[in-house]
Write a structure and sequence with these properties.
Distance between the termini: 71 Å
Structural class: alpha+beta
Helix content: 10-25%
Strand content: 5-15%
Largest sheet: 3 strands, antiparallel
Oligomer: single chain
């Protein structure tokens, strides 16, 4: 029986415990998410069609970002497109997209949306 499925003893125990899920019991299929699953959480994805976002997988927690590959962190869009160094890993709750797993037209649309959010609009000429 898993620790998180055990019955909690009644009464005040005066002990605080933190249980961190290690993910060993999870199968990969249930965890695979796409950009459409997090669209409501990120302004960058707001104007991109759901059908296009279904083709963009989010990297799983713990995935090492391969050296030389290009990525985009939805939680830090100001960082823009960045190159993996071979040491950085996807943290829990982080939304990272890989250019190699994203159709080129959708990748360009996402980068254009990032530019629209992170760069100030030019003032109209007078």
């Amino acid at each position: 029986m898993r620790y998180d499925q055990m019955k909690v003893p009644s009464g005040p125990t005066r002990k605080w415990e933190i249980v961190i899920e290690d993910g060993r019991d999870d199968d990969g299929a249930s965890l695979s998410r796409t950009a459409v699953d997090v669209k409501r959480d990120h302004r960058v994805l707001r104007d991109i069609a759901d059908g296009e976002l279904r083709t963009v997988p989010l990297l799983a927690t713990g995935t090492t970002l391969r050296r030389g590959d290009r990525y985009l962190d939805l939680h830090a869009p100001a960082r823009g497109e960045f190159v993996g160094d071979g040491y950085e890993r996807v943290r829990p709750g982080q939304g990272v997209l890989a250019k190699s797993e994203t159709p080129p037209a959708v990748w360009r649309a996402i980068l254009n949306a990032v530019d629209g959010l992170t760069r100030p609009n030019p003032s109209p000429a007078r």
